[in-house]
Structure to design on (124 residues):
């Protein structure tokens, strides 16, 4: 199948895939320079139903720009580490699609390198 054949059949074309995280039967991943504003898209893929959903698309770099690593918080939000121009941040995305800034690097141009969580109990 050629690229145009896939487009003619309505297949999606990704721009530049970056981070991915699998949790509770769902694969979350981001496309760092996709969308109408070329800022990003976040997708949700459910293998059990073979369903791919565009979950979030940024239209303003103040919301989310150039997402890189992605993880799920223990309370169910996505946390996305940016890798774009300006001050890179860790941006949260709630299950109902609300975006918020959790952390911002105001010191230098370095990016955050993939947030992660451990559910290990603390030693007593």
């Amino acid at each position: 199948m050629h690229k145009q054949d896939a487009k003619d059949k309505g297949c999606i074309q990704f721009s530049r895939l970056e981070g991915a995280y699998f949790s509770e039967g769902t694969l979350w991943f981001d496309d760092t320079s996709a969308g109408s504003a070329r800022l990003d898209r976040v997708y949700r893929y459910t293998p059990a139903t073979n369903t791919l959903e565009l979950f979030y698309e940024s239209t303003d770099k103040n919301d989310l720009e150039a997402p890189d690593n992605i993880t799920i918080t223990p309370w169910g939000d996505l946390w996305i580490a940016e890798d774009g121009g300006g001050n890179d941040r860790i941006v949260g995305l709630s299950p109902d699609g609300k975006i918020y800034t959790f952390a911002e690097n105001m010191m230098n141009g370095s990016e955050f390198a993939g947030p992660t969580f451990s559910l290990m109990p603390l030693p007593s």
